[in-house]
Amino acid sequence: MSDSATLPIIAVKDLHYIYDPQSAAPIQALQGIGLDVYPGEYLVILGHNGSGKSTLARHLNALLTPTQGEVRVKGLDTRMPGNTLSIRRAVGMVFQVPDNQIVASVVEEDVAFGPENLGVPEAELHERVDWALGVVGMLDYRRREPQRLSAGQKQRVAIAGVMAMKPEVLVLDEATSMLDPEGQHDVLAAVRTLNGNGVTVVAITHFMHEAIEGSRVLVMEAGRIVMEGSPREVFSRVEELRSLQLDVPQTTELSSLLNQRDPAFPRDLLTVDEVANEVQAQVGALSFRRKGEATLTPAPAHCTRDRTTVSLGGEGDAILTPTLPHHARVGDAFIELNELHHTYLRGTPLEVTALHGVSLEVHRGEVVGIIGRTGSGKSTVVQHLNGLIRPRHAGQVCVGGQDLSDPAVDIRSLRQKVGLVFQYPEQQLFERLVGDDIAFGPKKLGMARPERRERVRWAMEMVGLDFEGFRDRYTFSLSGGEMRKVAVAGVLALRPEVLVLDESTSGLDPRSRKDLLGRLAAMHREQGLTLVFVSPSMEDVATLVDRIYVMDQGRVVMSGTAREVFSQAGRLRELGLGVPQVTEVAQELMARGIRVQRIPLTVAEGAEELWRALSS
């Protein structure tokens, strides 16, 4: 790609950018970036929240122009206003938050908006819209109102809108962060196809398994490029990446841990197949050397279940029915949904039934995960848990012994007990200063100023924000990750008994996400905080939760402990989900006849299981 005879399609030279340069506290976001992007390249940009990735991306199609230096697209200087239209024809961009890109009131009209403004003939326009909606799996929703879609569905529409313009360069700024595993897979497959057809791709992501798709990876820190190379070269530098608040794919971390025990084991493996192939080869070589020892026998097709029985649910769905974890056995469920139904816009032509008889329980002291593909009803369920949506049609929601269909229920008191953090937590912020925003809830409860101050300090410490360093910061000067921490702190300041996270950690860099989840897990262990966790990250769910409910098409179709549910890899894939990479490695080895004693959920467990297989 970097052959001297090939001219870059985007050339960035000594790029600096300062936000609010005239203010008392200007922010230096980019510091001397030099970068060439070549036609047909698949470039991945990594970096923690606030490293400058999104600022760089916004320079690639002239949404921002340099404070110093220059950016040229196909030779056109982005600083020249007369070049803007041509640049944006060439470079299409998809943002992290889809609501910022959706402009029409009907899905197909929104997808058509871009190409229509480019003057695409009507016949071709229809073809492009159909093609783009088909690629992202949204053809069935073409006549829906975008505002009635889930966050993940909106993101698919936003991606389709850019794809329909058929740009020469596609810039994805964390565009898959709100998608379920199936959605991520579909979008990445579409991006690979586009790239194979000559479209240049620049992808900003926090998902390390996505980064291995690239032909080249850049790592940013403090507005500079600090690392560059092929995915294998970059991800082999595990400790260096961790020092930059990043992570590596679970497969690479797994191979690195095995390499520490046996230097002959490669430390830079990237995919499930690469790890499985290496383990199989080494086990095979060991068996050959032993000359006559019995070969390893396949593990059973199911794992040993932890305190469970198995029953069959309706319509052929396997329902795993667990005995509750020890700390959850005492007393009745704190939250209980019984045969809950919910229909949006009932009685109108736009009527959509979101829930079909959902039943689930949350006991005090549990961590319960809710997973499912985009549009499965997860957000509708959790909005019932603190009365944002009340049972209207059929079914019952009980919280702390109170039936939420009763108009006499004290909703204010309920929302003190059950705190909800939304998919876009930054939309919960409205005060000018961070400290005031976090103090808003305690102030409304009539808490005295000194007590309120200590409550804010405590909540900020719980999410990893320094009280003195952040309390007087302007709320909307924060990075996206910092805003999310402030939103969580604002809910924690009410000291809820139950904290509900509705995909609230999506968009955080790996270190920030792990830090926040680790702090919440500590509150769960040490203070008894009950957590309800909705997330598209199977790795996070596997690490954090006691029990999982799996939803599909408004129904609970599977439930059980994390190990039980993730042992059902085939069923999960049918539901548009997946399993953690380390779990997938173990299951692949079992399919090849290599004994794995238990299904691992974490990299540490995976390393132990694979080392046992290699050593036995």
Secondary structure: elements and pairs:
Elements: E1 10-19, E2 27-37, E3 42-46, H1 53-59, E4 68-73, E5 76-77, H2 84-90, E6 91-94, H3 107-117, H4 122-135, H5 151-163, E7 169-173, H6 181-196, E8 200-204, H7 208-211, E9 216-221, E10 224-229, H8 231-235, H9 238-243, H10 250-261, H11 272-290, E11 308-312, E12 318-322, E13 335-344, E14 352-362, E15 367-372, H12 378-384, E16 394-399, E17 402-403, H13 411-417, E18 418-421, H14 434-444, H15 449-462, H16 467-470, H17 480-492, E19 498-502, H18 510-527, E20 530-534, H19 538-544, E21 547-552, E22 555-561, H20 562-566, H21 569-574, H22 581-591, H23 603-615
Parallel strand pairs: 3-8, 3-9, 6-7, 7-8, 15-20, 15-21, 18-19, 19-20
Antiparallel strand pairs: 1-2, 1-4, 4-5, 9-10, 11-12, 13-14, 13-16, 16-17, 21-22
Structure description:
There is one protein chain. 37% of the residues lie in helices and 21% in strands. The chain has three domains: 10-243, Rossmann fold; 250-295 and 588-615, no CATH class; 308-566, Rossmann fold, CATH 3.40.50. The longest helix is centred in the middle third of the chain and has 19 residues, at 272-290. Residues 288-331 have low confidence and may be disordered. The radius of gyration is 25 Å and the shape is globular. It is built from 23 helices and 22 strands. The protein has a six-stranded mixed sheet with strand order 6-7-8-3-9-10, sandwiched between helices. Strand 7, helix 6 and strand 8 (200-204) form a beta-alpha-beta unit. The chain starts with 9 loop residues before the first strand and ends with a helix. It has 616 residues and is an alpha/beta fold.
